Amino acid sequence: MNEIRQLLKDLQTPAVNNAAQERARLRALAAFQTCKKEPTAWYFPWRLTTAAAVALLIVIFWLGEDETDRANRTLLAQIEQLFPGQLNGVVRVDGNIDVVLEPTAPSITQAPSQPLRLTLRRGKQTVEALGYSGRPLRLDLDGHMRTLEPLVTGDGKVIVAGDNFLWTKKHPVAIAGYTLQAQPLAL
Predict the structure, then answer these.
(1) What is the mean predicted confidence (pLDDT) over 117-143?
(2) Whole-model pTM?
(3) Number of domains into which the chain is organized
């Protein structure tokens, strides 16, 4: 037992990670704010209504190819409200929906950008991703993580950059055997 204590005393403290320190500070502030507030009569119904709206939008998104740009934009906006400054996109694969968040602390100054839809197809498999121009999306394509960085140009066209490729509508490239279609969601 004394040997373990001595080994623990001899360990050096790791260097401070500024991003982790900032996340801890923001979480502590958020916890402090929620602890000191008294629940009000409107708090629970508001949360319940928001959760129901998000669930409904996810179901609409999940039902198939018939969703409109408005439903996709609303879905992104609702989830962005739940994770301000952290949402990079929403991905649907085989009926499963995944929310892709920024792994670092939320960027409070991150300005909203043009929403867009990426559709990757290979055979009968379809991967659909809703995201934002300029925000990277990490997608699991057959067990390999791929980073796609979509950008909407000034004339409304989409460019998708990634590991060793650049995709445009005029010069499409296959990504891990998937064909890609990309389009901005109309505002």
Answers:
(1) 88
(2) 0.59
(3) 1
